[in-house]
Amino acid sequence: MLEKIREGSQGVIAKGILVLVILSFAFTGVSSYLGSSSEPSAATVNGEEISKSALEQAYQSERARLEQQLGDMYNTLASNESYLASVKQNVLERLIADKLVDQAAADLGLTVSDQQIKAAIMNEPAFQVDGKFDNDRYLALIRQLGYQANSFRDMMRGDMTRRQLVVTVVGSEFVLPGEAEYLAKIQGQTRDIRYHVVDAEPMLAAVSVSDEEAKTYYQQNQSLFVRPETIALDYIELSANQLASAVQVSDEDAKTYYDENKAQYLQPEKRLAAHILVSLGDDEDAAKAKAEAIMTKLKAGEDFEALAKTDSDDSFSGEQGGKLDWFEQGVMESPFDQALFALEKGQYSDIVKTSFGYHIIKLLDLQAASTSPFEAVKDKIVAQIQQDKAVNEFYTLQQRLSDVSYEVPDTLAEAAKEVGVEVKTSPVFTRDNAPEPLNSADVIKAAFSNTVLLDGMNSDVIELGDNHVVVVRVNKHAAAGTMEFAEVKATIIERLKQDKANELARDQAQEMMTAIKGGEVPADMLARTELSRGEQGIDTSIVSKAFEMAQPAGQFVVDTAALANGYAVVILDKVNQAESVDESLVTALKQRLNSQYSENDYRALIAALKAQAEVVYTPAE
């Protein structure tokens, strides 16, 4: 829990904290610690209830975590009710696992003292300011999470008690040195092979498929021919960008806007800076002494550019005599900025300290502040006026669109007439391949809602983006179902012909393999030495087969591999052991194995506890 609070405290609390504070060991939320016998339960574990409110709280937290992790992809996934149902079921299983661990920890007499909880809170960096515990920060953070001090301590007690058991089990795992090294050597193996591909493509002409065969395949594999639910929508799209293109702006209007907003077109003063930098390094006093020595040389008349080339720790600018770039005021760190803008052209500053080190700054040149002429910014002004007027018109039309599409819910014609746009019709699509601009989770949700789909009403106004909305209604709808044989007959025949051609290729490959075992190796076998597991340019099925085959006890071993369009005969001549093992790979494998073993231990613990427990799921309403 504290790890997630620490992560959340690094950013803007109000924006991220509720998303970041997700931990499977704290999914039960406040309510599970406070208890409530009157709430409906989602499940009971050995007679202890997991309330539906606790499940809902954990489910919403998981959705927030997934949304942050997956970004725009989450919106597409979230439009699928079955996906959300699986997420909720997974959350419930985590809650049950937590409850089982809680009960096991209680049976073992595991406890956490008040002093341990206090120490964990006091030592948590997320609750500290300048390395010291800050009570105001602590209270602000836990309130963001929806906790009071007492309930947060209760949550911490349960979390830390549970961790004692889990860490004891998971932390007992270890990886033997030889395991990781053995796997590294296996991964580093190469193999010498020869192979021959029997292509099924030329055999297609020799096979045929009867209508009866196709019909039988259709009847036995109807699950392969399920038509997804489809829909076509009528819709009205309204956006400020579209409206802006129709707005007419005269030169007089543009000039008036320019005169009234000249401050927007002011080009601020810019200064061309150079510097000599002495980095702070490990000895700040020595760095300061070096900067003072350079300053002494400057005052003695030595050339700034020459000293920058020889003495500056900023080697890139030093090669240019210390020259940096043109800067507007407020761009650089404050001490540097103030010094630069206090100089006259050609002057250099006193020694200035920033986070980069000690600087001596010189003003090479300056560009005075100026106002861009009207002609130079005219196009921008016209676009700005168009956008401003379009946005104002957009809000007016959006309200009319909302009112009319609601008042006349069985057609979009009246609303389209009211706002002066056309009703558009989309092509037929499924939930997963909606065309633009309808490829929004909110549009999909509305399109397949009872109001739009079953009742045949207009949707509410749906926001697609800034100043961009749409209203939809159903034009066509087809429920999911099995496609008719006539629709898929050609596809089935093509598939069965390919299967038969593959069978002929397999038979030919088997015959070749038998001949090879008898000593008749074809002269046209392709040879590949030092074949690695990640080999490129050879069919992955051939590579996989080569590394599945046992090391030759004699001259070679031979086998066949199924390809996407045919078969291959593979001869393994030799297994080449890795000459050396990369220590970084061994270390990575140790960490990966340890994680796998620990996860397996945790899953085994939960499985064992669940097998001995009485878990009752409450049916969904």
Strand line-up of the largest beta sheet:
18-5-20-19
How big a fraction of the residues is strand? 15-25%
Q: Report the biggest beta sheet as strand number plus sense, adding barrel if it closes.
A: 4 strands, antiparallel
**What value does the Rg take, in angstroms?**
36 Å
Question: What is the 3D form?
Answer: extended
How many DSSP E strands?
A: 21
Number of helices: 24
Low-confidence runs: 1-37
Helix content: 40-55%
Q: How far from one another are the termini?
A: 32 Å
Could you characterize what this model shows?
The chain is α+β, with helices and mostly antiparallel strands and 621 residues long. The strands form seven sheets. It has a four-stranded antiparallel beta sheet with strand order 18-5-20-19. Strand 1 and strand 2 form a beta hairpin. Helix 10 (177-188) packs across helix 24. The longest helix has 34 residues, at 374-407. The radius of gyration is 36 Å and the shape is extended.
Summed up, what is this model?
With 621 residues, this protein is an alpha+beta fold. 50% of the residues lie in helices and 19% in strands. The strands form 7 sheets. A 4-stranded antiparallel sheet has the order 18-5-20-19.
